[in-house]
């Protein structure tokens, strides 16, 4: 059980050593597993308080709060008072069944979303038992030693014990927009400092924007500053998606029309001499059946289940609207490294001059390197380029750990995207000198170099020759690093670290393309989606990989970051649609590319993993963050997280998004057509001189058995054939576009015409089964319709009945239930039905076949019509 007070209060007033002693931990070693378990049991999980989940009974009661349901309950009571107890019981049973189905749907949606939240568990790097390891942030305990670097979210309240140029964005907690520079010194205990001035603390929920640090966990979960705020806030419900809002607005307009039609039916029936109670129940029942008040809720279920399906394909949906918008993507802007490639860099070439042994080069590569050993098996954790350098250094015979112990790091200028280099400073006690090592892009390092290191000492540097060598390596698809050094007799000033350098050599590394990326790029092109590569690598390297993957052909244009910076927004917009490869760019330029594409009406998915990628991810229509190698900042800004950092997963998510949206349209098509058939049947009967074709119990039963399982089973419909061979959907396209509302209107009219036709025939023959016939025909035709609309173009005979077993099972069950209420004597009394003859049953099936055949003919016409053109750019 968690304590009522934080484990360590006022830690900002204590020295880092005093905090470590109070927490009983050695910062260089961390906690042992038994200590972690004991503290976890004592303090609880590092999670924020959440609103208590709604119980089953509360969920059930909420299903009866709809206005129309309450009216129907009142009608059931009224029916009982006038002696129609069987009707009262039947109506109540059906309403309870409807409520149970609603509860189950809601539970499935909550369950799916909870499963997605579990997949999104944040992680933290900690030092435990002397080893750096990655653990779930929820498993952190007071005393844990947490390692921070740029891009990380702070996982708990920390007392900082190391801070190398550490800056933190605390705006989420304090509202202060400026990043805060952190330090490790204790603060005056006499000052009542606000959170923003506690500069030796890092708070849960804030974001590291620069530098590195190490901190001791002093508070977790509800005891953190963020936890205190969360405890004061009431849980807010999830925002509805744009699609839900459009459907809800449509539902309101439809409700008014349906209520007007129900009013006409009621008045017409009463004027014809029908019982007032019967007509009231009929009108109310029709309103309940025809108004799609549950449509937005069902769409939530479909979106949540679709998001869950995407998670099985390693695409974690963080924002539910991304599921419906993925089908509109026209351009995918992707990083190269790790997304289009394997993210397993390998050293291919090492160049030095003047017979200089490469040992000097690999010594520099080891010391100017942030990758760390994570376990005793010799594996490295860190940037793939840096881990590849350590692997090669070890292969060259260097003892990486011994070398780092011998020449400890005394200072640094961390790598950043603007400088494209990093520098570290080391004290060499035997030589009584200080030596700095710099590595980075050749064009960023060579201008800082005065000479060249050779076996004979420093020699004049021919910058052109070295650049030609770097260009030759890059043309082979390699990433090229330049490595340099400088020595001082005393500890150098910061502004002297990156000037007067001596070049040691060049290192060429390669990151092979992913095998599946080529197929994914080809799928994009056939789907009308333009793949665009944006990388910080050399233009020749980027172009070589892009050609290999099929992103560009021989004459493609490449735009560098420098060239991009020289273009104003209008000039960039003029060329952006012709560029498929951007090289030597910095993350800040991504947002310009996104906006330029959007000016042309493009719907852009943008990948990113760094802190500086966050603005572009937010600006993009679909922000895609890396789940393995990305930062918490990027993941927070994104709509979609790739759990495997693979470009192919983006394409799979787009395909899944198209499938989900198609299935939502199928559900809407099915529901609106069914409601249309019921409305036409009841609305037109009085004007044709026919008696009331259905009783209230019939309408409610049809609404239960046809809108429930069969409709939801459409969510399991596989992707349509050619789903990735058609152009993207226009972003502003209505869900009722491409003939959906016309289909609902004419097929509903056909169903209503068939129902009224069999009723008129039965009445003319003096057949007492007229009402039962309408009841059965209406149900059977809707089942035929749901089978026919499984595809908007392909025939059911092409799809096969077994390709959606849940739907086949739902339709079969509905047929069986419908036959039961017609032929089982006990149910005949409840539903006021009579057993149909084989001829009448055959007539009902013939009507269903007519609806099925009509829809199949419509699809055949669609197959002959040309496929719509791709989304045109403005």
Structure description:
It is built from 32 helices and 25 strands. It is α/β, with parallel strands linked by helices and 874 residues long. It folds into four domains: 152 residues, Calcium-transporting ATPase, cytoplasmic transduction domain A; 267 residues, Calcium-transporting ATPase, transmembrane domain, CATH 1.20.1110; 160 residues, Rossmann fold (3-Layer(aba) Sandwich), CATH 3.40.50.1000; 145 residues, 3-Layer(aba) Sandwich (Calcium-transporting ATPase, cytoplasmic domain N). It has an eight-stranded mixed β-sheet, sandwiched between helices. Strands 10, 13, 14, 15, 16, 17, 18 and 19 form an eight-stranded mixed β-sheet that branches. It is elongated, with a radius of gyration of 34 Å. The N terminus and C terminus are likely disordered.
Question: Oligomeric state of the chains?
Answer: single chain
pLDDT averaged over residues: 83
* Helix proportion: 40-55%
Largest sheet: 8 strands, mixed
Q: What best-fitting shape do the alpha-carbon axes yield?
A: elongated
Strand content: 15-25%
Spans where pLDDT lies below 50 across 5 or more residues = 1-6, 116-120, 233-239, 869-874
Q: Any idea of the CATH class of the largest domain? A: Mainly Alpha
Q: Kindly identify the CATH topology of the largest domain.
A: Calcium-transporting ATPase, transmembrane domain
How many separate helices?
A: 32
Strand arrangement, major sheet: 8-25-24-23-9-20-22-21
Label the CATH architecture of the largest domain.
Up-down Bundle
In total, the number of domains comes to: 4
Output the radius of gyration: 34 Å
N-end to C-end Cα span: 60 Å
CATH evolutionary superfamily of the largest domain: Calcium-transporting ATPase, transmembrane domain
């Amino acid at each position: 059980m968690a304590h009522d007070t934080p484990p360590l209060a006022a830690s900002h007033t204590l020295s880092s050593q005093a905090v470590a002693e109070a927490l009983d931990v050695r910062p260089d070693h961390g906690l042992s597993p038994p200590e972690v378990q004991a503290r976890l049991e004592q303090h609880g999980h590092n999670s924020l308080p959440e609103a208590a989940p709604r119980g089953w009974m509360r969920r059930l009661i909420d299903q009866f709060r709809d206005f129309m349901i309450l009216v129907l309950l009142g009608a059931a009571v009224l029916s009982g008072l006038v002696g129609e107890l069987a009707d009262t019981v039947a109506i109540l049973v059906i309403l309870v069944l409807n409520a149970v189905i609603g509860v189950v749907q809601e539970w499935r949606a909550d369950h799916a979303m909870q499963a997605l939240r579990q997949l999104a568990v944040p992680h933290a790097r900690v030092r435990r038992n002397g080893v750096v390891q990655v653990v779930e942030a929820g498993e952190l305990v007071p005393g844990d030693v947490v390692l921070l670097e740029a891009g990380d979210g702070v996982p708990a309240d920390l007392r900082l014990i190391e801070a190398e140029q550490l800056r933190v964005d605390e705006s989420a907690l304090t509202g202060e927009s400026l990043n805060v520079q952190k330090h490790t010194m204790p603060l005056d205990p006499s000052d009542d400092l606000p959170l923003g001035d506690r500069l030796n603390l890092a708070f849960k929920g804030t974001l590291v924007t620069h530098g590195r640090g190490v901190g001791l966990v002093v508070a977790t979960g509800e005891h953190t500053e963020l936890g205190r705020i969360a405890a004061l806030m009431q849980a807010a419900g999830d925002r509805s998606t744009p699609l839900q809002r459009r459907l809800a607005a449509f539902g309101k307009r439809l409700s008014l029309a349906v209520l007007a039609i129900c009013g006409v039916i009621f008045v017409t029936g009463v004027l014809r001499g029908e019982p007032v109670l019967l007509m009231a129940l009929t009108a109310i029942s029709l309103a309940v059946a025809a108004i799609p008040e549950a449509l937005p809720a069902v769409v939530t279920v479909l979106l949540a289940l679709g998001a869950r399906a995407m998670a099985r394909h390693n695409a974690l949906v963080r924002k539910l609207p991304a599921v419906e918008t993925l089908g509109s993507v026209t351009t995918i802007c992707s990083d190269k490294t790790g997304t289009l490639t394997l993210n397993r860099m390998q050293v291919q070439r090492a160049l030095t001059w003047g017979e200089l042994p490469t040992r000097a080069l690999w010594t520099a590569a080891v010391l100017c390197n942030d990758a760390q050993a994570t376990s005793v098996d010799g594996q490295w954790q860190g940037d793939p380029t840096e881990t590849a350098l350590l692997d090669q250094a070890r292969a060259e015979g260097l003892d990486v750990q011994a070398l780092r112990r011998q020449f400890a790091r005394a200072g640094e200028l961390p790598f950043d995207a603007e400088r494209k280099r990093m520098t570290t400073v080391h004290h060499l006690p035997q030589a009584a000198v200080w030596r700095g090592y710099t590595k980075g892009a050749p064009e960023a390092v060579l201008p800082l170099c005065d000479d060249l290191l050779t076996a004979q000492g420093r020699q004049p540097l021919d910058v052109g020759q070295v650049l030609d060598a770097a260009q030759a390596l890059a043309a082979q698809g390699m990433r090229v690093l330049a490595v340099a050094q400088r020595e001082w007799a005393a500890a150098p000033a910061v502004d002297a670290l990156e000037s007067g350098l001596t070049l040691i050599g060049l290192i060429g590394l390669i990151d092979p393309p992913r095998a599946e990326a080529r197929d994914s790029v080809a799928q994009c092109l056939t789907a009308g989606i333009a793949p665009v590569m944006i990388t910080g690598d050399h233009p020749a390297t980027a172009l070589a990989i892009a050609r290999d993957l099929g992103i560009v052909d021989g004459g493609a244009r490449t735009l560098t970051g420098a060239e991009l910076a020289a273009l104003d927004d209008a000039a960039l917009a003029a060329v952006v649609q012709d560029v498929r490869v951007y090289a030597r760019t910095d993350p800040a330029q991504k947002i310009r590319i996104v906006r330029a594409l959007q000016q042309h009406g493009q719907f852009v998915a943008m990948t990113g993993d760094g802190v500086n990628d966050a603005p572009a991810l937010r600006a993009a229509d679909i922000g895609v963050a890396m789940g393995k190698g990305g930062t918490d900042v990027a993941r927070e800004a994104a709509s979609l997280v790739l759990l495997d950092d693979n470009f192919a997963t983006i394409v799979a998510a787009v395909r899944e998004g198209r499938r989900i949206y198609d299935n939502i349209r199928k559900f809407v098509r099915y529901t609106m057509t069914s409601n249309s058939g019921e409305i036409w049947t009841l609305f037109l009967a009085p004007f044709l001189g026919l008696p009331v074709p259905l009783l209230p119990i019939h309408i409610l039963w049809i609404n239960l058995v046809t809108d429930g399982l069969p409709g939801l089973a459409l969510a399991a419909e596989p992707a349509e054939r050619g789903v990735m061979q058609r152009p993207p959907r226009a972003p502003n396209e209505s869900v009722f576009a491409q003939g959906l509302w016309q289909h609902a209107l004419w097929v509903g009219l056909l169903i209503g015409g068939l129902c009224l036709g069999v009723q008129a025939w039965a009445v003319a023959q003096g057949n007492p089964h007229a009402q039962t016939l309408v009841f059965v025909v209406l149900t059977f035709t809707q089942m035929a319709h749901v089978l026919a609309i499984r595809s908007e173009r392909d025939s059911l005979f092409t799809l096969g009945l077994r390709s959606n077993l849940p739907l086949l099972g739902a339709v079969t069950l509905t047929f069986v239930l419908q036959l039961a209420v017609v032929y089982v004597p006990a149910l005949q009394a409840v539903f006021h039905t009579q057993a149909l003859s084989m001829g009448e049953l055959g007539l009902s099936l013939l009507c269903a076949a007519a609806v099925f055949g009509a829809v199949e003919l419509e699809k055949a016409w669609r197959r002959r019509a040309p496929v719509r053109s791709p989304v045109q750019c403005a």
